Amino acid sequence: LSAAMDTESTYSGYSHYSGHSKKAHRQGRDRHKSPRSKDGSRSEKSVTIQTPPAEPLLGNDASRAEEGQDDNWGETTTAITGTSEHSISQEDIARISKDLEDSVGLDCKRYLGLTVAAVLGLLVFLTPIAFILLPQILWRDDLEPCGTVCEGLFISVAFKLLILLIGTWALFFRQPKADLPRVFVFRALLLVLIFLFVFSYWLFYGVRILDSKDTNYQGIVQYAVSLVDALLFIHYLAIVLLELRQLQPMFTVKVVRSTDGESRYYSLGHLSIQRAALVVLENYYRDFTVYNPALLTASKSRAAKHMAGLKVYNVDGNNASGQSRAMIAAAARRRDSSHNELYYEEADHERRVKKRRARLVVAVEEAFTHIKRLQAEEQQKAPGETMDPREAAQAIFPSMARALQKYLRTTRQQQYHSMESILQHLSFCITNNMTPKAFLERYLNPGPTLQYDRDRWFSKQWTLVSEEAVTSGLQDGIVFVLKCLDFSLVVNVKKIPFIKLSEEFIDPKSHKFVLRLQSETSV
Q: Biased composition, Polar residues: where in the chain (predicted)?
């Protein structure tokens, strides 16, 4: 356990701040101090800004400092703190402004729609009951006696209302998965249809039954039964429009992530653009690997390194366009040798990844072998002295910590795996008696986005950009874009072509043949 505590202090780089980030912040603080803070007329406020985990990796100095930081866990994950009252990042500004603009409108729209649907649903279920009870309350003495057929209709109304209630609960009472920019057209049409339908029934009931005080109570109950039957048919129509219509695949969409070009294909039915965008996002979190901006820094640093090696001397002092053309020409001359540098860089990176992967596999296998020895020793101990999975994970974690640290830094995954998440995963594997290969699967193969903590990948706000109205249906050739803060998803819609199949009949007799042997052979 003491070794585990030593390793925990070693891994505290996730929460401590590196000297590089402190130096950068001191420089930024000196630049952004206001005159009021210099004069001392206003006390400084302590503000803590947590930068996104991938932000420090985007600089050009990340690749140069990788080897120097290799033995320190999580140094690329930095946080900027200080006493400047003007310290704030661009991501925070965009997020705060977006939340302030959209939170009030989205909440009002959501609750208004739920309120209207709830009131209308309550009116629908109370209307047949009111049709039956109002004559009993207002002119009970004048009503004709209710016979056996009338009493049987009571049972029919009760069971039909119960079936309608269960079906409505299963179809409509669901937790919303997203806030769409526009209303769902078919659902709005169904609400309008139900309102007009119930209103027309109430209008007929008020004119023909309430005003005239009809004494035929069996006819009144039959009228209520017809209303419930019509509501059941409307519920069937809702199932067809909201659920069954979109099941048949009609379109194929290609989703491309703008940063790294990763793509997937999906088949969709008749959906509006906004609902197709919702389906794309649901599949994105499940199928796409987690977005890692650190993997894009190699090409950026390589391009910056090539451009930094070019020097242009301006003799006249006023030929800016000539400088640009000279740099472009020099870069074109160096293009022939750049592919060799790229080849050797990728080969060296692959060699380092394989080497540290092998070290990690050996370290984890040895740690799990130690677990088996601990389990054998625990069987001989008293029941009160056994070690729980969390303590066992902390006991064996130091033996694999350094190898895992180096591998995650080499593959640039360290910002997605905290020490606490690794310990939880290790204790989970120990609890379920999983093998070392099962433990390493999460780290050796980058998994889908949902595999990681929500705070590290979840984007709260997506923006749908489309030339067509988002309530219109999908069509062949439509392109729309889903944007978040760090990247965007470009969706291209193609219609599944019409396929014509023809049948060709093969005569069974055509498979028969005759083998003729010649008696005379040439010698």
A: 74-86
